[in-house]
Amino acid sequence: IPSNITADEADNVQVVYHILAGTGPGLFGLDWKPAPAFSTYVIATFMRLFGESVTGMRMASVVLTTASIPVFYFVARQVVSRPASLVASFPLSSSVWYLHFSRSGWENIHVALYALMAMMTIAAAIRRGNFFLYAAAGVFTALGLYGFMSGRTIIVALLVYLPIAYLLHHESRKRLLIGYAVMVVTALVLFAPQLKNALDDLQSFNRRVDAVYVLNEQNRAQFGGKGSVGI
Asked: Are the beta carbons of 137 and 121 closer than 8 angstroms?
């Protein structure tokens, strides 16, 4: 393993090599974290295309984060002017954090594209009242559930926005509620195979989340005492 490969990348690439050899977890199984194996299948696909190398391993993050930048622009463009959207996109594309993970064989940054696409499609769906766009938002919500653990917050964020959308779009409330139902059903249907495996061993499925969740009691005690949060 080259010296510029991080420990997390090395753990990921072991799973990827098992997938390429046909001995890894199934598409709806769990990887080493454990998290849905879907993301390591994405990395494996890019390694098939670009070669079994450091470049191939990191190419999934490179492509998906590059695609996120114009999507971010169009999301911003829905509420602010063209110059403001361009200015807002620059810090994203040049931040050290974003550049670091965009060149990593680690799937957490993939969630940025799923979240932005979910935001863009749900906004367009509400504006146009188009049920196909609501279904598209459900697809990206499901991708978030299949991705890194932070992707689970996508569906939460969209549902939190529902009461606000309900108040703002009083002329099409019935269509809005039906559209949201289409989104949720689409996401649940697509995530159903993974959900079955998760429910079979929910404790294992949530082990990584429990280990890093900043508000659980054990982590509060470790980082500054009860009732406080530290870094």
From this structure: yes
pLDDT tens, 186-215?
999 999 999 888 888 787 788 877 777 777
1 contact partners, CB below 8 Å, separation of at least 6:
10, 13
Backbone angles phi, psi at 42, to 5 degrees: -60, -45
Contact between 135 and 178 (Cβ < 8 Å) = no
Helix (H) / strand (E) element for 153: namely helix 153-168
Pick from 15, 16, 17, 112: nearest CA to 62: 112
Q: Give the residues of the chain that fall short of pLDDT 50.
A: 227-231
Neighbours of 196 (CB within 10 A): 10
Q: How far is CA 214 from the centre of its chain?
A: 19
What is the SS3 assignment for 125? helix
Both tokens of 8, joined, read 């997390």
